[in-house]
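Bit of a strange request maybe. I'm writing a small parser for structure token strings and I need a real example to test against, not something I typed by hand. Could someone generate the tokens for this chain?
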Amino acid sequence: MTSPAPPRLRALRHVALRTTALEESVDFYTGPWGLELVDRTPDAVYLRASGPEHHVLELHAAQANALDHIAFALPTPAEVDAAAAWAEAEGATLLERPGPLDRPGAGYGVRFLDPENRVLEISAHVHAVPERPLDVPVPRKVAHVVLNTTDIDALTAWYTRVLGLRVSDWSEHQMVFLRANTDHHVVAFNQADWAAPNHVAYEVGDLDAWMRSIGRLKVAGHETAWGPGRHGPGDNAFAYYLDPAGLVPEMTAEVLQIDEATWMPRVWPRIPELSDLFRTAGPPSPDIRRHMGGVPDPGWARPAG
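Reply from user aminoacidic:
Good idea to test on real output. This should exercise your parser:
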């Protein structure tokens, strides 16, 4: 039976990426980036942050950089069943019907496609891991994923209608920020010429941990590709990097918290003093823009490998 309303997703659980440099990326993300290897298969690795989530990043060996899937959290299998019924009633193509998950982290989940053939997973009862000390300046969770899209209005309508996400803000008509919980955004869309992952952000505990993370990366030989700075939309501190495959991770902190009862979405002009409130980063370079643009990603229909 279809639920009478879209699901109220609790959080972004993990992001899975396809990478052309698997082993080099494992060294980067488990080294200066600060994640920890929690499981692996012959062609994939599963990396945890300092929080209780089993893993926040999956890396899959591939011939081209791409998004593999995005996973969202619900509390119970019954809510996963209801979310699957709602998505199917709204016309989504189910790739895996609700049931036990036979992969690292286990749990109970469903997978289906968004309108641009991205694979989305909604899961519950995924295995937890012991939290790492809060005083360690490493990521504690995946904060958000930004995706390039050819139709920002259609994707916004679909993600709010089918997944129950809410619009927090717009950056003119170029970007839109969607939330699942009190965090300003867990997903954002950027209008572009093709669909592709833009970047994935990882949140540390505070500005001190953020600065120490930037320092750790610098000592290891990794300079920022854009930042440090502080965004207007979301009010989060940012520092963007390039990983060994050319994918873009962001180290972030102090993401704006939303009061659901009173928040009204705003439209932010795309001007330097609002893109970076610190005024330290300057505009993003053509090189980081190129990496954020990625390569055309056909989604689930992509060739294997």
